[in-house]
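Dear Dr. H.,

I hope your travels went smoothly. While you were away I took the liberty of generating a structure for the chain from your last submission, since the lab meeting agenda had it listed for discussion. I wanted you to have the full record in hand beforehand rather than looking at slides cold. The sequence, exactly as received, is reproduced here:
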Amino acid sequence: MSDVDLNQGLVLSALGITGALFGFATSQFVYYIQNYWRRDRLLLRIVVPLVWGLDLFHLVLYAYTIFQVIVFARSNTASGLVLPWTGNAQILVNACLVAAVQVFYLHRIWGLSRQLILVIVLGIVSAANLGLGITLMAQTLIIVSVAGLPTLSKFDVALSSVTAASDIFITITLVALLLMSRRKGSRNNRLINRLMFYPINTGFLTSLCAILSLIMITTKKGTNFYVFFYYIGTRLYTICMIASLNARESLRNDMADAAGIHSIPAIRTHPQHTTSRLAGLRKYSFFATQPSSRSGSESHSGDAPAVLGAQTAPGGKARGLGEGHSADDLRRVHAFSLLPKS
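The corresponding predicted structure, in token form, is as follows:
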């Protein structure tokens, strides 16, 4: 098998896998639109469609590039094959997609820590990742032909290294901040343990793909093995981000069951729970959603405020699920969950 056949087989295999992953990301996106988008925070209402749109655009560019390369490769030698403009564009789109997802996680870190220096340092690493992606795209415009791609290996190595480093740093920071929110014997610890699963899962998968891409660049020169892992990692960014947002309802329900709170309608059917008392409960909730504009039985849908994380004390005052936690601890958990505030 020639190197040309091997490279074409690799990019076609990567296209099939990334296409399947995009289908899964689309199902997650549709679920998000149906259940969260209208009542979510403005940042998420912008970032989630943006990430999915970039993912779609990248897949289209990738598929068109492969089509152009395979079709014209039959009438051109590998050394004279011109790199399609879509091959340059997909590098830039990929860099923007990764940057958008990392901004999402930086926003979570800011909500958890309120440490400006920490966010700036991580932001610089993420900006370096974006800058390297733009630089690589600019270099591909200069070389013109496919034969010149091996000369860009040093840029590929730098990009994969910084991508892996930024993912690892962001993951470690999120997990460390969540661990700092734990307290001995607190019922919030169960929620925090589940919340830690998502950054660990995301960081592990995306970092693994970046590391494998880095290994392939250095050990399998002249092949497209690194592209195989690099673009799969891009799809995983989208899937993990949207899936973590879609899991918020499940997290809320699990904590409600543990606290003995089964549903919002059950709370509202008790006469002793007045409007002012519900407002007090909502104040202490770290999973509150935006109040619905509907009233009566219609407000018992998913748009109704979820009073998770609060119980009513004998004196009528509300106390948080994580009794013994400071207000900062509850704020950290609420900030990480990214559910709309009341």
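Two observations you may find useful: The beta strands are 310-312, 318-320. The CA atoms of residues 23 and 29 lie 10 Å apart.

With kind regards,
E. W.
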